Amino acid sequence: MSWIVHNLWLVPWLPLLAAGLTAFTQRKHRLFAASVAIGSMSLSLLLSLAAFTEVLRFGNQNATKQVFNFGWFQVGSEWLKVGWVLDPLTAVMLVMVTFVGLLIFIYSVGYMAHDDNFARFFCFLSLFAAAMLGLVIANSLLLLFICWEIVGLTSYLLIGFWYQKPSAAAAAKKAFITTRIGDLAFLLGIVWLYSQAGTLLFYDNGAGCLEHAILIRLITQTTIFGMATSTGIALLIFCGAIGKSGQVPLHVWLPDAMEGPTPVSALIHAATMVAAGVFLIARVYPLMSAHVGLDLSSASATALKVVTWVGAITAVFAASIAVAQDDIKRILAYSTVSQLGYMMLGLGVGGVAVGMFHLITHAFFKALLFLGAGSVIHGCDEEQNIRRMGGLRKLMPITFATYAVGMLALCGFPLLFSGFWSKDAIVHAASTWSGSRAPFYLAIIGVLLTAFYMTRQVIYVFFGKSPRFERAVPTPHESPAIMTLPLIILAAFSVLLGLIGTPAWPWFSKFLNGQPIQFDLRGFSESGILATMLLSTALVLIGLGIGWFLYGNKPAPEPAAPDAVEQFSPKIFNLLRNGWFVDAFYQATFVRFTIWFSRACDWLDRSVFSGAVQFISALTIGGSRLSRSTDIFVVNRIFDQSCQEAVLSGRLLSRLQDGRVRSYLRIIGIAFAAFVLFLIWGHRG
Question: What average pLDDT does the structure give for the chain?
Fold first, then answer.
């Protein structure tokens, strides 16, 4: 075992140390806080690259997994073990999280430069990154869950970073509570898995819960409903992923998370928190589809079907909502929900490599888009309404150029951008899925909607001419180099990453699966690939064309004027603008019931339980007063009288014992005389 495997814990430990140091840093030490945070992420990136290089050495040896397990604490005679694992999945995630995270950290120095709580912000960022990196390397579901919950905690702290804003405080609480719903099911799945497997280690020399022996046992056991135990556990774990990755129906927290600073949005929506749910499903994929490669029954296929349908529905559902949004960050937020749906769909129909490739490419171009949006907001004096923008391509050329790259990558513009190859792999896998054709149709609808709403956003922000900016003082301006440099780097990777996932050179999938990698143009001739590419290309171009037709080459309308889509159907547009009224539905049902139930509990507590407590209290006080009276007027009086009589008796007896010998002789004489008289009297009788 190499040194990097032994020391893999340093990757999350360094940002954790930085968080600890900056937690005790005074506000005025801004440079120290930023330097420690960025330095720790830089070192973690170097260690991640070393880990990645180590995995490359074994890339063609059946995806070797190197694990390091140790006993954490002992319960009776049993040791609870945790550990970490280094495999291709861990390696690519470590490099992505540390690299994208580092760029976001650097960008934050410029974006948060004027914030009073600059040091606290970097403390939270470092803790967030440490938790995500710990989650990635975990070889134990328990350790993963611990880091999972720390991610949830830090997301609450970061979303509500500007807690003085009521909307930010509410969004933080909403995110925390909504994700706890999924986490509760996740925890139940963990407990159930431990009760059946006796371990939470993923890999442990054949005895891990994701290895053959345990999977055999889970597949063959059934619940009282006839469902395989593995399926039940897998579905509970997936509930945790639904919450963390913003899938329907627990997606409602994610758009509101935009209340946090823009670097937080980039970190949460690109490289860390929302990716954690997808990574979780990829990590436990042997459990989700235990029959694959194990020659078992297809009992676990139910879990993958659920993943597929939830992902497909989420992809279209969120994309439709993004069409009618005006906030630049909320559009990207719903876009993130949609793309996460594509990742889940990819995992369900194509396997780990298909879903994870889109996760990696999406991390780069979505981080680029969020940071680009932050640059726009920074240059427009905190304005976020795209309908109050316009003409920024000339005022912010670097931001515009990099944002255009991210937009085209997200749309899946053919051949040149990474999003095309990763999304196309998902669409192709969906087209060949044996379960149903419906996910494929939903996927291609999502492709069209994505191209449309991103065209709408870019035209509103960067094209046209806004009257507001003609009057604005100061006018919009380009962001400083410390903010634009990360944009340029992310834009480059948003293009270059596509090269590792083409049908001719599917390096990424081969690397994850531990298969030999070779360049072969015949990959394009595989069944349905070219047809899918042509269909996807046509849909993207149609979406771009419709967007340009409706919004391009036209004077920028007033912000209060109806949107171009709204003019066609105001009711549908209002439905989409309000997110299909899911929040309103939850407010009218679950939230209202919760409020009613809490008030009923309050009434029950005040009127029933409190009355009962007060009645019992009154009885207790009355009983105590009666006891006191009885003690004073009965017990004490009898006791005092008895004591007085005892004292008197003692005094009488004390006179008989005065210590004088002649008195004693007198008493003895009298007693003797009485005794003699008694005998004589008795004898006569």
Answer: 88
pLDDT of residue 635: 83
Helices (H), 112-165: 118-137, 141-159
The three-state secondary structure class of 660 is: coil
Across-strand partners of 222? 228
d(Cα 409, Cα 48) in Å, to the nearest integer? 26
Exposure string of 33-59, with b = 16+ CB inside 10 Å and e = fewer, is bbebbbebbebbbebbbbbbebbeebb
- Tokens of residue 292, six digits: 């694959």
> Rounded mean pLDDT of 321-336?
92
Cα 557 to Cα 513: distance, rounded to the nearest angstrom: 52
In this prediction, residue 453 has a pLDDT band, given cuts at 50, 70 and 90, of very high
**H/E/C letters for each residue in 253-312?**
HHHHHHHCCHHHHHHHHHHCHHHHHHHHHHHCHHHHCCCCCCCCCCCCHHHHHHHHHHHH
Residue 74, φ and ψ in degrees, nearest 5:
-105, 135
Asked if residues 149 and 183 have their Cβ atoms less than 8 Å apart, the reply is yes
Q: Which amino acid is at 229?
A: T
- Per-residue pLDDT band at 300 (split at 50, 70, 90): very low
Q: Give the pair of three-digit tokens for residue 656.
A: 């008989």
Rounded CA-CA distance 17/26 in Å is: 16
- pLDDT tens digits, residue range 656-673? 666 777 777 777 888 888
Residue 535 — pLDDT band, cuts 50, 70, 90?
very high
Residue 491 has pLDDT above 90, yes or no: yes
50 vs 352: CA distance, rounded Å: 23
**pLDDT one-digit tens code per residue, 301-328:** 789 999 999 999 999 999 999 999 999 9
Q: Which residues contact 55 (CB under 8 A, 6 or more apart)?
A: 64, 86, 87, 88, 90, 91
What pTM was computed for the model?
Answer: 0.87
Closest CA to 266 of 399, 400, 100: 100
End-to-end CA distance of the chain: 118
Q: How far is CA 370 from the centre of its chain?
A: 19
Q: How confident is the model at residue 576 (pLDDT cuts 50, 70, 90)?
A: very high
Length of the chain: 685
Q: Following DSSP, what letter does each residue of 172-200 receive, concatenated? A: HHHHHHHHHHHHHHHHHHHHHHHHHHS--
Output the pLDDT for position 468.
52
Integer Cα distance of 519 and 652 in angstroms: 123
Contact of 439 with 349, CB cutoff 8 Å: yes
In the numeric block, which tokens belong to residue 229? 């135990």
Collapsing DSSP to helix, strand or coil, 201 comes out as strand
d(CA 573, CA 514): 48
Is the predicted pLDDT of residue 441 greater than 90, yes or no?
yes
In this predicted structure, the answer to whether residue 615 has a pLDDT above a threshold of 80 is: yes
pLDDT surpassing 70 at residue 298: no
* DSSP-derived secondary structure letter, 81: E
Q: What's the one-letter identity of residue 380?
A: C
How far, in Å, CA of 428 to CA of 433, rounded? 9
CB count in 10 Å sphere of residue 353: 23
Which of 185, 195, 44, 244 is CA-nearest to residue 126?
Answer: 44
Alpha-carbon Rg for the chain, nearest whole angstrom, is 37
